[in-house]
Each structure stands twice: as C-alpha cells, then as structure tokens.
Amino acid sequence: MYKILHAENLAGNIFLMQVEAPRIAKHCEPGQFLIVRIDEVGERIPLTICDYDKEAGTITIVFQPVGASTERMSHLKTGDSFIDVVGPLGQPSEFIHEDMEELKKKKMLFVAGGVGTAPVYPQVKWLHEHGVDVDVIVGAKTKDLVILEKEMEAVAGNLYVTTDDGSYGRHGMVTKVIEDLTAEGKQYDVCVAIGPMIMMKFCCLTTKKLNIPTIVSMNPIMVDGTGMCGACRVVVGDEIKFACVDGPEFDGHLIDWAQAMKRQAMYKTEEGRALLKLRE
Ligand code: NAD
Ligand code: FES
Fold first, then answer.
1. CB within 6 Å of ligand 1 — which residues?
2. Sheet of strand 158-163: strand arrangement
3. What is the pLDDT of residues 73-93, one digit of tens each?
4. Whether residue 244 has its Cβ less than 6 Å from ligand 2
5. Any residues with CB less than 8 A from the CB of 70 and at least 6 apart, and which?
C-alpha cells in the first residue's frame, strides 16, 4: 500500500497528493510519469510526476478529475492509500543526459499551461539544482487557477505568469508571451512546452515561426500507460511512436497534431476506443 501523506485541493478542481513511495522516488528523473490504482478493481491511471524527494522517499502528483477513476481519486484524503503505484515510467527529459557545460550555455524557455505546470516544475527544479537557470512562462485561464507559483519562482531564472483573462500577471495566452518575450529581445535555443494538446500545438506553431526547437509532452493521449492499449500511438516525423514507452517527450515540430488530437478525442469514449482498435 502507498500511503497518502498529504492531500490538498490546489485550485479549482486541481488536486495535489504527496505519496510515500521510496523505491519510485529513488529512481525518478524529470520528464517521467507513474501509474496509480486506487484498489483491486480500479483503472490504471497514468499521471505525470510533479515532484519527488529521494531522501524522504516521497513523490508528488497533481491531477484534475477527467473521468470516474480520477474523480474517485480526488476524494481520497491524507492517511488513505493507493493499492498500486508503478514507476517511474517513460523516458526522462533528454537534457539530463547532456554535457552540463553545454547545457549551461543554452538559453531554455519552459512553457507551462494549467495543470501542465506540474510536470514542468521537476524539470526546472532539476536544472536549477544543476546550476542552469531558465525562463518559465506559466499560463492559466484566470488568477485562481494559477498553481505552484511560489515553488516555480524559487527555481526559475525568470518567471512570467499570464492569465487568459488578464486577472493576474500578463494578459493573454502563453503563445502571446512567447511572442512578446522574443520581441523584447529574448533569444532561446530550445523551448519545452507542456500543457493541454491545443496549447502545445499552438506553441509549436509559434516557435516554428521563431525557429526555436521545441519539446512537448504527449502525456494527455495515454490511457493505460503500459504500451499495451495502443492509445498513445503518435506520428513523429516519418516514425510511429508510443508516448508511454518512447516518450512522453518528443520533438513538437515533427508531431502530426491533427492526428494526435483526433485520437485523443476518440479515446475519450468506450465506443471510440473500440473503433480505433478495429481499425488498427
Ligand atoms: P487550460 O485549458 O486552462 O490552458 C492552460 C493554458 O494553456 C491557458 O491559460 C493558455 O495560456 C494556454 N492555451 C490554451 N489553449 C491555447 C491555445 N489555443 N493557444 C495558445 N495557448 C493556449 O489548461 P488546463 O485545463 O489546466 O489543462 C488541462 C489539460 O492539461 C488536460 O487536458 C491534460 O491532459 C493536460 N495536461 C497535460 C500534461 C502533459 O504532460 N502534456 C500534463 C498534465 C496535464
Ligand atoms: Fe496504452 Fe501507451 S498508453 S499503449
């Protein structure tokens, strides 16, 4: 059993849980995900990792209810347990394998949208701990939905918060901030954009125009996270990849967004899942 040491409603319907899982915490790297199961009959739920503490043996997850299982999960309290937590899964972010001196010379921009702020945090934290300061844009619909601002501020070189309605920070979507920062003279060698699919797609369109190579996380198209269901099949350039095994991070400029978004929409329903299975 994996005990929930702390459960909190972060904002709106966004929840944070810190879970005791020493073996997983010990091996976690930024960019990876894990799978939780509430009980014997529960679905496998793939979730990005928001934070981990190798010494304390804990991992932190942040999620939004999107179906019956995540809705049930949101009712778990401090002291409750998960029957299963499996991970870390997927490939870590590529930069952890780069030469540190080269990495320190790079100008990196992280773009976090809504709940996607959670998986961006451990990446920015890892870089900060290794002496690399990066720029971070955090976007949310409105002031009350901005999450992890204090935590991000502590590890980011520069933090730019923006809200769609202008109720806090800058006014406008994250893509507008990318354009504004570059117009203000900022130059970036690489961008990492993580959030809803539509945001990642439009970030890629923006960074393509600006010639900034861009990495995205295809976590939102996963269903069981095991490499078995085929839901997370994604076309990257002329290759077919599985987000849960080969990713979740890929070159965003090579992704077939129309196909990925169509699959995500179809996999939301039982009927759509059955249809896609028939076709494959
Ligand atoms: P949201 O809809 O509130 O969007 C967050 C921000 O993304 C917005 O404030 C805006 O700045 C930007 N954005 C949205 N649409 C855009 C567009 N068309 N063009 C440019 N920018 C745009 O986000 P949310 O409700 O918090 O997101 C929930 C989604 O996040 C879920 O679908 C979930 O799958 C996804 N998510 C993704 C990851 C990942 O690894 N990629 C991780 C966790 C959650
Ligand atoms: Fe099922 Fe990747 S999520 S195969």
1. 48, 64, 113-116, 118-119, 139-141, 164, 173-175, 194-196, 198-199, 202, 217, 219-220
2. 170-171, 158-163, 135-140, 108-113, 190-194, 214-217, 249-251
3. 999 999 999 999 999 999 999
4. yes
5. 45, 63, 64
Q: Rounded distance, CA 242 to CA 109, Å?
A: 25
| Beta strands 2-11 and 14-20, pairing class | antiparallel
The interface pTM score, or ipTM, of the predicted complex is 0.95
249 CA from centroid of ligand 2 (Å): 14
Number of H-type helices and E-type strands within the chain: 10, 16
Residue with tokens 């960019």: 31
What is the mean pLDDT of the segment spanning 253-259?
Answer: 95
Ordered by start, the domain boundaries in the chain are: 2-89, 94-217, 218-280
Q: What SS3 state is found at 209? A: helix
Could you tell me the two tokens for 126? 């890892």
Asked if 136 and 152 touch (Cβ cutoff 8 Å), the reply is yes
Domain at 94-217, CATH class: alpha beta
Q: Please write the tens of the pLDDT for every residue from 18-45.
A: 999 999 999 999 999 999 999 888 888 8
Lowest mean pLDDT among 45-54, 64-73, 86-95: 64-73
Task: In whole angstroms, give the CA distance from residue 234 to residue 203.
Answer: 18
Question: How, if at all, do strands 190-194 and 214-217 pair?
Answer: parallel
Alpha-carbon gap, residue 7 to 92, rounded angstroms? 26
Is domain 2-89 given the CATH code 2.40.30.10 in the classification? yes
